[in-house]
Write a structure and sequence with these properties.
Layout: E1 2-4, E2 20-24, E3 30-39, E4 44-51, E5 53-56, H1 60-68, E6 87-90, H2 96-117, E7 127-131, H3 140-148, E8 155-160, H4 165-174, H5 188-192, E9 197-203, H6 205-209, H7 215-220, E10 224-230, E11 236-245, E12 253-255, E13 272-278, E14 281-286, E15 298-300, H8 303-331, E16 339-344, H9 349-361, E17 368-370, H10 382-390, E18 399-406, E19 410-418
Parallel strand pairs: 1-17, 7-8, 7-9, 8-14, 16-18
Antiparallel strand pairs: 2-3, 3-4, 4-10, 5-6, 9-10, 11-19, 12-15, 13-14, 18-19
Helix pairs in contact: 2-3, 8-9
């Protein structure tokens, strides 16, 4: 079952040992903290972090009320500690062009740090797949990769599937049978086998919240990013996985798209549109249920609405992939093997607890630790950060599960085996 992981101390991220903090000279100055993680036993390293001033659950309501223009009521003030969140990071007001500069510089630093933690030079990176709910610019990933020193010839795929984007990128890089969101006429898992790949999620949600009037969203979301390096087939081997789409007809979690999408969907057609935006650059864009004009960038139903949106289909997605995993183990004559841990999107602690309990009723009892109390909901970055925080404790040949789910509604679940480093 999902449980609070006491290995992650309830302290502000910038105060953690090993976090490198700098102030980016943008606007009045924006603090950025990055922590590098490496596990040489499995040959995987990466970097994660956040940017902006830190707000705890005592100081956050003042920021939220300033944005809303009115005081939070007892009904709208959330018990955030109960939901697993103690801190969020937010940036000061910036001009549109400053937002782009900030997020490109932040992403470039994270890509460089993740490559270094993997033991690679940026020039050695073959591909970058990054989930981002609402990028500050259409070419944000390309600009960040160039600034990081990653070659123009490297494949770049930006994935916009809300909170599912990070795990979706991993599924795309590893799963040779993936259909949803795949590039036309190409099998990325086959192309990237044995290559150096950076995968993750980079989310500047504080910028998005500056155009939001939903008190729930303003209290839950914050900035965060996690990127790690893998060599498919070597340091991380695909076992089972799939992607699922169930459109949010009711608009339980509405998100304004900041990326190009036709906003059309036909019966039986995917909600995802794949577009080539450069010689080696692609965009995987998911259709979102968007708010009406004038009501802000994010509109959320109450807590029960989020449960309705994510839990039922989320349990189905995990059950199907876990079933395929068990079948594979039986075929290999290793039916005694099992998945040791699930690294899930941290929507909130109660949602993850409920999913874990429902899966347990179906005989699926995989530990799902809660690892992000110092970030808030950081969308596509959360499962990536959770993996990096768990990485030091993982061992070669262990089987782990990534569980991503996000607005739209999109689900990616991937079971992998960790390789031996070297």
């Amino acid at each position: 079952m999902s449980e609070m992981d006491q290995a992650v101390a309830p302290e502000p991220f910038f105060a953690r040992p090993g976090v490198e903090v700098e102030t980016l000279p943008i606007g009045p100055g924006v603090p950025l903290g990055i922590e590098r993680v490496t596990n040489p036993r499995v040959g995987i390293g990466g970097a994660y972090g956040t940017w902006g001033a830190c707000y705890d659950n005592v100081t956050l309501p003042g920021l939220v009320e300033q944005q809303l223009g009115y005081a939070l009521s007892d009904e709208t003030r959330m018990n955030l500690a109960e939901l697993g969140f103690l801190y969020r990071h937010h940036i000061p007001p910036l001009a549109p062009e400053e937002h782009v500069v900030l997020e490109v510089q932040t992403a470039a630093r994270l890509l460089r740090a993740a490559a270094a933690a993997s033991g690679w030079q940026p020039a050695e990176v073959d591909a970058v797949l990054i989930g981002s709910t609402t990028p500050a610019a259409d070419d944000q990933l390309e600009r960040a990769a160039a600034q990081a020193g990653i070659p123009r010839s490297a494949l770049k795929v930006s994935i916009h599937k809300a909170c599912d984007g990070g795990v979706a990128g991993l599924n795309l890089a590893l799963n040779p049978g993936l259909k949803s969101g795949s590039l036309p006429g190409r099998n990325l898992a086959a192309e990237l086998l044995g290559k150096r790949v950076l995968v993750g999620g980079i989310e500047g949600l504080s910028r998005v919240l500056s155009a939001t009037y939903d008190p729930q969203a303003l209290q839950l979301f914050g900035n965060g990013a996690g990127v790690f390096g893998v060599i498919p087939g070597r340091t991380m081997k695909f076992l089972a996985g799939d992607a699922f789409e169930t459109y949010d007809e009711e608009g339980l979690l509405q998100v304004r798209m900041s990326y190009p999408h036709s906003r059309r969907s036909g019966e039986g057609q995917s909600l995802l549109e794949v577009t080539q935006i450069g010689e080696n650059s692609f965009r995987v864009a998911g259709l979102q249920h968007e708010p009406k004009d004038g009501v802000g960038a994010v509109v959320m139903a109450g807590p029960m609405g989020m449960v309705k949106l994510f839990v039922r289909t989320g349990v189905m997605a995990v059950r199907r992939v876990y079933g395929a995993y068990r079948e594979l183990m039986a075929q290999l004559g290793t039916s005694g093997r099992d998945i040791c841990v699930t690294l899930a999107h941290h929507a909130n602690y109660k949602i993850n607890q409920l999913k874990a309990r429902q899966l347990q009723r179906e005989g699926i009892t995989i530990p799902t630790p809660w690892l992000l109390n110092d970030f808030g909901n950081v969308s596509a970055a959360s499962a990536m950060i959770a993996f990096l925080r768990r990485l030091p404790a993982l061992a070669p040949a262990e089987h782990i599960l990534f569980d991503g789910f996000g607005a739209g509604t999109y689900y990616d679940v991937v079971a992998v085996e960790l390789g031996a480093g070297g």
